[in-house]
Amino acid sequence: MFRNMTLGQYYPADSILHRLDPRTKLFGTLIFIISIFIVDSVPGMLVIAAFLGAVIIISKVPFSFMVKGIRGIVVLLMIAGLFNLFLTPGDKILFHFGILTITDAGLKSATLMTIRMIVLIIGTSVMTLTTTPNSLTDGLEKGLRFLTVFRVPVHEISMMMSIALRFIPILIEETDKIMKAQMARGADFESGGIFQKAKSMVPILVPLFVSAFRRANDLALAMEARCYNGGDGRTNMKPLKYAGIDAISYVCIFVFLGTCIAAKVLL
Amino acid sequence: MSLIFDHVSYTYSPDTAYEVAALNDINLKIDDGEFIGIIGHTGSGKSTLAQHMNGLIRATAGSIYYNGQDIYDKGYKLKDLRTQVGMVFQYPENQLFGTTVFEDVCFGPKNQGLDEKEVSLRAFEALRAVKLPEEYAETSPFDLSGGQKRRVAIAGVLAMKPAYLILDEPTAGLDPAGREEILGLIKELHDKKGTTVILVSHSMEDVANYVDRIVVMEHGGILYDGTPREVFHYCKELEEIGLAAPQVTYLMHDLKKIGFHVDTDITTVPEARDAILRALGRKE
Predict the structure, then answer these.
(1) Is B107 in Cβ contact with A203 (below 8 Å)?
(2) ipTM > 0.95 for the complex
(3) Is residue A145 one of the residues assigned to a domain?
């Protein structure tokens, strides 16, 4: 049952986007988010959507995977959209019925807000779908290294992140195994009230905690046995390296940002 | 009474990028009272096959019948099937959770809805069957040694009195004495109580010494199905898929090569001993 859960929703494929340096993708996503909030006209938003569409085509990830992220926030989108639509005061009243009033400003802000949210979610999904969680942490560590100047333990934080990420699938598998084993002994996790259900989780949680602590202990020992003592002077087995494609991407990102700013000023 | 697999196939995560075919058109009939070994190397689908036997995994195609009833029928109670077909997972000691050994062993029979007296009776009976001294019943299972924990976990399944018992690598990670102990226990269950045993393993010695029938799995399909003698006759083919025949079988092959008249299909040490004595023309 847990096998269907995609973690960090990485979608394996062979595309330019998958091969990009994670730092480029992180930076690109950041610029993309900024530009979404710079642009405040509907045609400008459509330009951004078109750009996103092109990126999606390059990524070779099926569009259905992109939309998955939106499904979870449909309700939120609808509520926010409707509030914007009916409650924004404006000069021109387009529609009036009882307490419901739609103004031109309301229509504009509702449309913008909805497109903005959808584009924002799909845009960030593109990054998580094309980057493995591990290379994402690598990218973050490298990209945020300058923070060490301010005594932020960047390496330690990223190490914790990658260990946590590494352990999620293991623990999911473990949970699945323990659940099956207890089901084989006639355990029932579905029926009964809330207290009954909570009680039925004990045979899963106890072994899961025991195994999590054992694994953490083993890992700590294994790391110490290999003389791990933190970030200073550590080298990487596969150091992140920018390639030509990254330079091209950076140019594209800046051209995109420039276009967005120009659109904001001119339109 | 029997367990029948009829054209069973299983695919992990169908219709996604992670799609993997784990079982491929399996046809298998297991009769009451059999002692079967399922062998195959890692990823051959043997554990997946075992988990179909008590309905923990639902086949993506085909049907499974237990005592003539389709276990995927709407009204069929899988919970009952699971108490009939007991399953001991790999490293079962990792699933212990009770505050005492006794409490943990009681979990299965309690879920069967038995009354308290019957539950305790069965728990003690199961602990006796795995030869765990009674004074351990009130200790925490986490204070026991690895081998003892495993026996407690097996007792937890035995307490449900299953007619079929599936064991997935029950000897993994145990020392030779521990292996003998666990396998001896299982054999006793089969011989004395008539429990049908399905032993999933990749130790050829374990399988050759105890089972009556071997099913060899490869790439999610059944490659060979027969008595140990029949199956280990294909020792060359078994090697090609990363398995092997028991050591004594190779010994017999070598003896034959240097001129002794011995049977090369021998799979256990006592058989080998008799054959060698015969070849030497001696009785003892």
Answers:
(1) yes
(2) no
(3) no
